[in-house]
Design goal:
By secondary structure, this protein is α/β, with parallel strands linked by helices. The chain has helices at 40-44, 86-95, 103-116, 133-139, 157-162, 175-192, 195-198, 214-226, 239-249, 253-259, 277-285, 294-301, 307-312, and strands spanning 4-12, 21-30, 33-39, 51-54, 59-60, 64-69, 119-126, 142-149, 200-202, 205-206, 231-235, 267-271, 289-291. The longest helix has 18 residues, at 175-192. The two termini are 39 Å apart.
Length: 316
């Protein structure tokens, strides 16, 4: 006996050529696992399910995947869109005044909007994540979450300015904050990875090449590899990042990451918005994966990620 039968809908299985379309199909589910897909007539007559969902005139398809979001940042949506540099002069300073206790509500709002649009899996990057993960559990979505590991401490911004720093320059790094956020990441992993039969997964989230020292980036990589976890890293997100790594290490972000061994199959590179063709080819060659975030940086900086180039270079 099936637990659930979804029947009568137009099913997109994504199998074979095209989208695997089945007109007036049915999906049988037992104990949370899809056990059969086929024409509605054949499945409906095969067994008596405990629950029948009538999907007539609807499309039934795999859930969409939002591979990279900052769910609690919903509170700051639209804040810095017309400010340059948007992070250092807009979003970062404004978010210092957000109420941290409200963050789970903003996460819940982001997830509700996503689910309403057909998204069932979220790659959520936040700090602190421990309270926000409860929103993922409550709403029933799949989640691949990480704690943002960073040596960037916005609380010290006034002191940076007093010391001569100006927005757009590489930000000073705070080793103590890096150690603290990495410890939070490890705690998050130990507590939640694999929760609810694997519905919740935890990976590691070093923020970006310009927000972490070389030593801290390698330490995060080491801790992730001990646990078989991937790295979720903002990569060549904007010109500021390339400028910072050039000033510190003499290399743009992608060549720098390659020089220290971070470009590898366990790296998930987010954005790649400001890259040369050779840099995109290098990311693909090293087996790192790409997450394409066309809307965010496209809106803020008017730059689109090189998704076609990455795919043509053999990337995934």
């Amino acid at each position: 006996m099936y637990d659930t039968l979804i029947t009568g809908g137009h099913i997109l299985t994504m199998a074979g050529d095209g989208v695997g379309f089945i007109e007036r199909g049915a999906i049988a589910i037992d104990k949370g696992v899809i056990v059969a897909i086929g024409p509605a007539d054949s499945l409906s007559s095969r067994d008596t399910p405990r629950q029948v969902i009538d999907a007539t005139d609807r499309i039934v398809m795999p859930g969409l995947v939002d591979a990279h979001l900052h769910s609690a940042a919903t509170t700051g949506r639209g804040w810095a869109q017309e400010i340059s540099p948007w992070m250092a002069s807009g979003y970062g300073p404004l978010m210092r005044h957000a109420i941290e206790d409200d963050a789970p509500l903003w996460t819940l709002l982001a997830l509700m909007e996503g689910v309403a649009a057909g998204t069932t899996t979220f790659g959520d990057y936040e700090s602190p994540m421990n309270d926000l993960i409860l929103s993922h559990i409550a709403i029933g979505s799949r989640a691949v979450v990480c704690e943002g590991v960073s040596e960037l401490n916005w609380a010290n911004r006034e002191q940076w300015i007093a010391d001569g720093w100006t927005p757009g320059e590489p930000t000073p790094l705070d080793r103590e904050m890096g150690e603290r956020t990495l410890a939070n990441e490890i705690t998050l992993y130990e507590q939640w990875n694999g929760h609810d039969d694997g519905r919740i997964r935890v990976i590691f989230g070093p923020h970006a090449a310009d927000f972490l020292s070389r030593e801290m980036l390698l330490k995060v990589q080491e801790e992730a590899r001990k646990r078989g976890a991937a790295l979720h890293l903002h990569t060549a997100q904007d010109a500021r990042e390339n400028k910072a790594t050039e000033q510190r290490y003499g290399l743009r972000a992608v060549p720098y990451l390659d020089s220290i061994g971070l470009l590898a199959s366990d790296l998930i590179a987010v954005h790649l918005s400001v890259t040369t063709d050779d840099e995109v080819d290098l990311v693909a060659k090293r087996g790192a994966r790409m997450i394409c975030c066309a809307n965010s940086i496209g809106i803020i900086d008017g730059v689109l990620p090189p998704a076609r180039r990455f795919l043509d270079a053999g990337g995934v």
